Amino acid sequence: MIKKQFQYAIDWVCQLDATILGDTYESIQWKNKIMYSEDELINIYNKKKYEHIVWKEMISFRNMLLLDSDWTQTRDVILLNDNEWKLYRQILRDITENYDPIIEEVIWPIKPKVKAKFPKPE
Q1: 30, 23, 27, 29: which is closest to 3 by C-alpha?
Q2: Quick one: DSSP state of residue 70?
């Protein structure tokens, strides 16, 4: 777990009766004999982070971008750069796995230009 992410996890766990003496897992002094492993601490962080407004905003914005580009994936649309659109949409779908908006700025993919193939009129 990266240090910044670990610090956010520690901040949330502090609310669970812990005193933080440093920036490592071993420096957590648990009150009331509550012992959490590092994996449990990471799981607590991962569960709590999805409740954060920044996550909700990121997912909402991502969903809007996907909806806005849904038309590119219909069968009657012929795009010369179809692979660019597929990659763009995959990056959007993966954004929640690749970024943690609580601790880092999300880098959004750039929407490809429309390069369509139009049928010749008869």
Answers
A1: 23
A2: G
